Model the fold of this input.
Amino acid sequence: MPKQDEIRAKLEAAFAPRVLEVINESHRHAGHAGDDGSGESHFRVKIEADAFGGQSRVARHRAVHAALGADLLSEIHALALEVSD
Done:
């Protein structure tokens, strides 16, 4: 399964978001540090979910990281997050 689809599936299962965009930005980093040539190294996630209500920015980011899991995160060089409730 492509990493973009895996990210989407894990976040949908964990947060039932109202808005979820998973954008593969790897092409913008071709030849740069962290580019492993797979085309799946840099991602941007925009997510809005009630589950983030009342949480600090740090807590929201930690929740997203926990939902994605260490194995998937270890395969991604960069993950930009825009998280809101």
